[in-house]
Amino acid sequence: MWLLMYPCRLISYFVFVCLVIISLTTLYLQTQLMKLPKNLLAKTPTIKNTGQMLELMPRVISSLDAHIDSGLQSVPHLKTVTQLLENMESCQLSSLSQAQLTQVESQQANQHPEIGSPP
């Protein structure tokens, strides 16, 4: 009741209570800061780099998505190229086989001349 009769005291009391609250809050925050790792300042660049990487992630994901779409659109072309390469390989193997067969026949003919032919 006496506080209402003296407004200056009310203000002083209010300021005092505020200062106590601020002091307790500051003390609490200091206690919490003491609990943080001692090498937190050393980790600051890593924390900043992690933040920058996280900011870049949406663009990276979008870019990868675009490349995957592009790759999926070129699948029919890849099938055509694969078939052409298989055909080329088949033709080369076929001509290589024929060349080897001709060479073997030629060698056999030179080793076993027919009877009655001049040497």
Shape: rod-shaped
What is the average per-residue confidence, as pLDDT, rounded to a whole number? Answer: 78
Structure summary, number of beta strands: 0
| Span between termini | 144 Å
Low-pLDDT regions: none
Sheet of most strands: none
Q: Tell me roughly what share of residues is in helical segments.
A: over 70%
Number of helical runs? Answer: 4
**Structural class by helix and strand composition:** mainly alpha
Instruction: Give the H and E element order.
Output: HHHH
Q: Write down the Rg.
A: 45 Å
What is the beta-strand fraction? under 5%
Descriptive report:
- This protein has helices at 2-5, 7-35, 40-73, 75-111.
- The longest helix has 37 residues, at 75-111.
- It is rod-shaped.
- Helix content is 87%, strand content 0%.
- The relative contact order is 0.03.
- With 119 residues, it is mainly α.
